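Researcher: Sequence recovery benchmark, item below. Answer with residues only.
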């Protein structure tokens, strides 16, 4: 990673047999001026436990020895406000990596300044997560691994992944919405790209063009509406968050 950039890896996974899920992120920031910093994030949702989601984030000067993040493994630990988290997870999957931004030339262009890739769009996560002395066994949780990098973090963005639809349990959806800042101006919400995967069939959504054919409309909290370019159809995604799933932590 060159000076004046950032890079992050994350894994999100959910237990197929109970209302539990995790989200772990490793981030590295190297400013043009000033020292480099890293951050380790861990979020656990466990509705069976009857507790609010637990969020642990620690910012450090460098990753501790033994920390790992990538397509096949996440390992690390973090401490914040009396909470301690430790994780060691392995990821497997047979789906090819997905780069939602289209056309592919956007990955070589100066804009958008944030590039992203679903390295494992749909896989299995196995291992363990320790949180405040409690061990959570992760066995065959369905998950995804994401990687994003660039000169700067996106001004505003939504990277949505959904899987396990009731009528199509093997299907999954990847959708990227973003607002790009150019000088003092900020673009409207734009559908940058996505992928709707069904067994033996994959439907890529094209990015917005300057014609405005592809766009994302403002929507109520928990929902998004995307209009794929060159496609005579509309995609509407709606999520009703559970009150117990709300969590927040200082950036």
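Model:
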């Amino acid at each position: 990673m060159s000076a004046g950039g950032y890079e992050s890896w994350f894994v999100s996974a959910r237990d197929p047999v109970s209302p539990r899920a995790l989200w772990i992120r490793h981030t590295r920031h190297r400013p043009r001026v000033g020292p480099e910093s890293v951050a380790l994030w861990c979020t656990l949702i466990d509705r069976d436990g009857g507790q609010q989601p637990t969020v642990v984030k620690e910012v450090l000067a460098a990753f501790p020895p033994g920390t790992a993040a990538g397509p096949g493994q996440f390992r690390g630990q973090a401490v914040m406000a009396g909470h301690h988290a430790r994780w060691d997870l392995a990821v497997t999957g047979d789906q090819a990596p997905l780069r939602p931004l289209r056309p592919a030339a956007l990955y070589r262009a100066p804009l958008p300044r944030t590039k992203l890739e679903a390295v494992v769009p749909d896989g299995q996560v196995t291992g363990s997560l320790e949180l405040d002395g409690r061990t959570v066994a992760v066995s065959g949780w369905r998950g995804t691994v994401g990687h994003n990098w660039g000169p700067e973090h996106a001004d505003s963005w939504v990277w949505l992944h959904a899987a396990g639809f009731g009528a199509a349990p093997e299907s999954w959806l990847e959708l990227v919405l973003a607002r790009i800042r150019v000088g003092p101006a900020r673009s409207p919400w734009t559908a940058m790209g996505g992928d709707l995967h069904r067994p033996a069939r994959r439907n890529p959504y094209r990015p917005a063009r300057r014609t405005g054919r592809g766009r994302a409309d403002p929507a109520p909290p928990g929902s998004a509406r995307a209009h794929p370019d060159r496609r005579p159809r509309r995609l509407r995604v709606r999520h009703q968050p559970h009150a117990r799933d709300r969590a927040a932590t200082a950036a």
